[in-house]
Amino acid sequence: MGIREKIGLIRAYIPADDETVEALAALLERQEALKSRYSQSVGRVDMEAVRGAIAGGKPAISAAGLWLTEEEVAEGVREVASVVSEHIESESERAGGVVRALDEGILNLRRVALAVLRGDLEEAERAAGEAGVDPRALTSLVAWALQPALAALSDAVMGAVDLSSWSSGRCPVCGGYTALGFMDRDGAFHLKCQFCGAEWGYPSGKCPFCGNDEPRLIGSADLGEGKPLVLNICHVCGNYWKVVDERISGTSVPRSLYDLWTLVLDAVARRLVA
User: Does one domain contain both 226 and 131?
Assistant: First the structure.
């Protein structure tokens, strides 16, 4: 079953028009193909250094760094830009501007990629300004191109490193916070990174953002009896996280689509948290 067929299983939950869903499906397909190519490059990462970083409470990316070459990042950006140009007419010109800057050799993508990984949007904007391209388009394209590379790293880390001692709400691979989790068939709770896809065990009643675990200060909402999607809201920090209960849903929907499946909960959260 391909990505589009899998998305069909959850289409009723996605609060977007068919054109938007088609664009998302095309992007996910292209990212999956990029992940297969990027998987070969993960062998450059020092996995012993990664183990040491995680044991010391630091995410894998702090030891891995950016292992992709300029050409590999450019390949990803071109692939993603082609999807955007084909499926999102309003962004086509901006995406095309980034590709033209690449063709002219005036854009250093590793510089931008490193800035994106650090969360340094000012540096990314400076690079965009120097190249004369739209900063939002540039950072978005680079992030979408990096995502499959980090997903490949995530698979490698989860296959080679024991994450059972990781107790943070931050991702052990890329270091970002996540607002997504799932309850597995055995009743164990896990967080799932929305960017790189890493999974790790975490207390089900604990806010992944601030660590609040006081039951009376965590609210929840679901979509009705028998529905597998639940929204948790922390009344201390005001953040929320989405949960898929696999004891109800089973495993027909792959976990890689959980963030898309739970977009309906983001819409609920906007009403409840506002």
Answer: no
